[in-house]
Amino acid sequence: MAREELEEIQFASKGPNTRSVTTRRTSTAMDSSAVNEAYSNKRKAEPETQSAISSKKIKQDEDPLINRSEKYWFEDGNVVIHIEDTYFKLYRGQLARTSNFFANLFTGDESISVRLGDLPLFHLTNVTAHDFALLLEWLDNSIPIFTAAEWPHHPVVASVLRASIVLDFPSLRDAATHILQQEWDSDLQGYLAVTTPILYAANTVVLAKECNLPPAILKRAYYELLVESDFEQSADDADETTEATPLPCSEVYLLIRARSKLQDAWDDVTTFPATLASCPARKTTDKDACKSLVQRKVAWLKIVFESSLAKDYKFDPILGLARLQSADWKAEGICESCVAKMRGEWKTKQEELWSASDEWLGLDTGEEVEVVQLRTQRHLVAFAFRGLSSIK
Questions:
Q1: Is 347 found in the same domain as 241?
Q2: Does any domain span residue 371?
Q3: pTM over 0.85
Q4: For residue 48, what are the domain limits?
Q5: Fewest 10 Å CB contacts: which of 8, 205, 216, 361?
Q6: Strands 79-83 and 119-124, how do they pair?
């Protein structure tokens, strides 16, 4: 009987999936059926390999692992923007028309750009995904128009402003700035007309310095901080959805200096005035003349100190002067002539203090507000992201 030998015949398909087929033959002849089976297996292997390659390409084009924006992933979009861990599939033309930043970004050589499937992919590091999404919402609504009764939540306006400046959307920047100017009105009468404090004053100060906002916005925000005992730096001053914005030491020092000036002025105002010390009408036979000097001093103590007016407005002499003007002095025996004179003096003092606060707050230099860049210059340039770990 002839000795049997074991011989391996290997068939390797092209690609990563290489398989071996072993046949058994005698020393004299190969089993033809085994050979046929081996070649058959080879033919079956090739289409499987091609299928695997195709599947890999589909995964690269439509990677389920990437975090797509729920609202801003348009199926017919033609450019992908990657910010932090979020991908936005947007319309290139719309971005280029409304943003000088994107218009310049898209003029580069596309042949060397990174792509996600068939679309160009750009990775931005100079803006947050949250701010960018809010900017897109305004852009999608063709810049919403708001009335004073429905100003958008301050953090929304701040986000749009930051993103519109960094990415150079002029129309959105102007819209956000306009809203802030209306909200933080620096007019004296505008301040007196508001009955409740405006929230986010500390945040507005920081934002104004970062974004080089008009000094008028900064002045009103500063004064809103001055009337707060702690300059809005405790957690109690924040609402349920945000934390107190910490101010730089330089800003706190500026506020302390301005408060000292205002308190000195308020101390002078709450001192018994010379106008009441001598009533001209008492030198005549006018029946409506002021009461005696002692009675006038009692009236002053009653309205200014016993009512806690002096204490309640020690941080806000502007509003304190308004309360002095509206007090019922005539009921306390002060003549109409003296009341009119005092009210005129208090009104003038209001205007003087409101104007002087510009200098105390560093706003009366004639120079533009200091600009603090949102990012360093090297971070203000977008670049095509290379080596995305989720796209291989």
A1: no
A2: no
A3: no
A4: 4-61
A5: 8
A6: parallel
